[in-house]
Specification:
There is one protein chain. This protein has 3 domains: 346 residues, no CATH class; 123 residues; 148 residues, Galactose-binding domain-like (Jelly Rolls). Helices cover 41% and strands 15% of the residues. It has 22 helices and 20 strands. Helix 4 runs antiparallel to helix 5, helix 8 runs antiparallel to helix 9 and helix 13 packs antiparallel against helix 15.
Length: 706
């Protein structure tokens, strides 16, 4: 019991070291808004806590609306979210449990490590010192200000501890419980633990050809896992939306274990007093960070030395799963692009379907964690077994002393919330309070899971009483629903039809120019507050002189004759308005029409005194086999030209030319509308998991003399 209290105390001290007294509070949220991921986790928890109970239990439809995917697809530690939602009526409105969660992780990280070491050594002092390596682990502490739910490294350690059990039945149910707990913490741990579990089961039963036990022990956890996933809402998002791209980006570098540089949203941290930085790609310093520390490196050297010295001893059956973990998990983490420092040593291409599946674990560098902790555990236990009790303790104390000195710059960076960029943003509470009283729904003009508005509006989303919002971020979301929602929104703008009690935060300046043009003579208000534009139906009379003056600066982009405008999706000083989406090929490869309506808006600054041409270059298009893309192009709703294209080769210079009669242009304004009759998604064509309904890839527009 004294040992348990010791580790509770150590967990509290470590939490206090990281957060400071001020941020231990369950109602102080400011430190949690230091990164987009943690901000999203906090807001997700708020909407989940305030919602009614639904089925599946993890449903969280008010956070994301059309792209809502549930609490299990956020970093809000789902099992704690459910527990504290049950206590919702007893909690203050601004309650959160994330400081408690950090304490739990520090406590269990060190205590479970102690239990493992003590089980194998039965030496109290040695086990306590050994556990401190895990309490101060760089890869564990590095994770805290990034992804709180991914701080549960103790889940991996608990898997290793379960393997110390002798009763196979008890062991199996412990594993089942652990796998279910991991799924309700973060699914990356589930994938890691399933891999570890299967290796141990195969080692136990495959060699003995006990097929019955093998099948039961492998499939039983999966049955319980799928039941849990169904109950908590994992299947609310189609499996295809877990596929994607990025495997080979956030990966392990061969130099990662000796590279002391980590990168988090707010910090670049040097974890070593002794070792220099090894240049590598940014992504490898984020998710591939796996620095051992000087003490850990010396431990590893000792472990490897004695393994080679007594290799026959380590060939025993009981050691095989551990060697497979040390081999296979790093291979997954390294991916098909093997690098050392900045040098790509070699690369091999994966079939596109295999690549898509492997991209489920896009942050593959995390898969080194089991090997990382196993190297520490194995080296500590080898040290104990190859030296006398007294000498092994002295050596371990010395190595831990070296470890702490070495990683002290990194630890100092995390002292008293240094790792959290804490800022209290002053906002116009009076304005937002009134808006949230009159309107329940806060939306954006471009529904996107990676929206930049989440950071801009974090205080509003946390402190105001909007009942739902689509300004959100999820680990997984329904891409098809997102695309449909965007296209429905473009249609509502085109037809001036909106749901009641809904206001919009305008995503970018191009959208603002288009909305101003469409609704300039209608009863719609534009308000500039807290560095964002808000579009409010039926409130034009509430606009202040400040709002009107600010809005007057947003006229359509001015073009000259012979201008050639390259369209780039993220350029908010351009001519494209609603109904456009990005190209995966390159930021300079044009923009896709998405849905049925896509618009361009610009003007000439001089009076039009002659007819002219607008040349629109189409670099590619999506079609079904032998089925044309049918679309029309209109100007200011005054004339329309229709097109039907099967192949890009039908076009002259891959472009269409609109002949513009000068009499059709009023005040130089050009409002061009593409209407696509039959957009189609790459997903439907079996080309990729991309569910957007796309039509034309428009590269540029050019003004030509007639």
């Amino acid at each position: 019991m004294r040992i348990l209290f010791l580790y509770i105390f150590l967990g509290f001290v470590a939490t206090l070291y990281i957060l400071g007294f001020d941020h231990l509070s369950f109602t102080n949220h400011y430190w949690l808004t230091s990164s987009t991921d943690m901000t999203s986790d906090l807001i997700s928890w708020k909407y989940y806590k305030n919602d009614i109970w639904r089925f599946p239990i993890g449903s969280n439809p008010n956070y994301g609306i059309d792209i809502a995917s549930g609490i299990v697809f956020s970093g809000s530690v789902p099992f704690l979210s459910v527990i504290f939602k049950l206590l919702g009526n007893l909690l203050p409105n601004n309650f959160h449990f994330f400081s408690l969660w950090i304490f739990i992780c520090f406590f269990l990280q060190s205590y479970i490590a102690f239990l493992i070491i003590y089980h194998h050594t039965n030496n109290l002092s040695f086990s306590i010192i050994g556990s401190l390596f895990f309490l101060s682990s760089p890869i564990f502490i590095h994770r805290i200000p990034m992804h709180l739910s991914l701080s549960a490294h103790w889940l991996i350690l608990l898997g290793f501890y379960i393997e110390t059990k002798n009763e196979s039945t008890m062991k199996l149910f412990c594993w089942i419980g652990l796998i279910l707990l991991s799924a309700l913490t973060h699914f990356y741990f589930t994938m890691i633990l399933l891999g570890i579990f299967i290796l141990f089961v195969l080692n136990e039963h495959l060699i003995n050809l006990n097929i019955k036990k093998l099948v039961i022990q492998i499939f039983l956890p999966f049955i319980f896992l799928f039941m849990t996933m169904y109950i908590f809402g994992f299947f609310e998002v189609p499996y295809t939306d877990s596929l994607g791209y990025g495997y080979g980006l956030y990966k392990l570098n061969l130099a990662s274990i000796i590279n002391p540089i980590s990168v988090s949203p707010n910090n670049i941290v040097n974890w070593s007093l002794f070792l220099p930085e090894i240049p590598s790609h940014l992504e490898e310093k984020i998710e591939g960070f796996n620095y051992l520390g000087i003490g850990g490196i010396f431990l590893l050297i000792i472990g490897i030395f004695f393994i080679f010295l007594n290799f026959a001893e380590f060939k025993k059956k009981k050691y095989r799963p551990y060697f497979f973990i040390i081999i296979l998990f790093p291979l997954v983490a390294l991916t098909n692009r093997i690098s050392f420092a900045n040098d790509l040593l070699f690369e091999f291409e994966l079939p596109k379907y295999i690549y898509g599946i492997m991209s489920i674990i896009r942050a593959s560098g995390r898969f080194f964690w089991p090997a990382y902790y196993l190297l520490f555990l194995g080296s500590i236990l080898i040290l104990y077994n190859k030296f006398t009790k007294k000498n092994s303790l002295y050596i371990l104390i010395l190595l831990f002393f070296l470890q702490v000195i070495d990683i002290s710059p990194g630890l100092q960076n995390y002292f008293n919330s240094n790792a959290f960029k804490i800022e209290k943003k002053e906002i116009d509470y009076l304005f937002w309070n009134k808006l949230s009283q009159e309107n329940q729904i806060l939306r954006t003009t471009y529904l996107n899971n990676e929206t930049h508005l989440l950071t801009s509006l974090k205080e509003i989303l946390l402190l105001q009483n909007f009942t739902s919002t689509d300004i959100a971020k999820h680990a997984r979301y329904n891409r098809k629903k997102a695309s449909t929602s965007r296209t429905n929104l473009y249609k509502s703008f085109d037809e001036s039809t909106f749901k009641k009690n809904t206001i919009f935060v305008i995503d970018n300046n191009n959208h603002l120019r288009n909305l101003k043009y469409l609704f300039e003579n209608k009863n719609f208000g534009f308000f500039f507050r807290d560095n964002v534009w808000i579009f409010v139906p039926n409130k034009k009379n509430k606009m202040t002189d400040f709002d009107k003056k600010a809005l007057s600066k947003y006229d359509p982009i001015t073009l000259q004759k012979k201008d050639n405008i390259i369209l780039k999706f993220n350029d908010d000083q351009s001519v494209h308005g609603f109904g456009w989406s990005h190209s995966f090929l390159s930021p300079y490869a044009g923009i896709w029409t998405e849905g049925n309506i896509s618009t361009l808006l610009f003007k000439f600054d001089k009076k039009i005194n002659e007819d002219y041409l607008i040349k629109i270059k189409l670099s590619s298009l999506i079609t079904k086999k032998n089925k044309p893309i049918n679309f029309s192009v209109s100007l200011n709703d005054l004339f329309t030209e229709k097109f039907s294209l099967k192949d890009i080769n039908e076009l002259d210079e891959n472009s269409i030319k609109l002949k513009i009669n000068k009499k059709l242009i009023s005040d130089g304004i050009h409002y061009i509308k593409f209407q696509i009759d039959n957009p189609v998604s790459p997903l439907k064509l079996f080309r990729s998991p991309d569910a957007r309904k796309l039509g034309l890839l428009v590269e540029s527009i050019e003004i030509l003399t007639y």
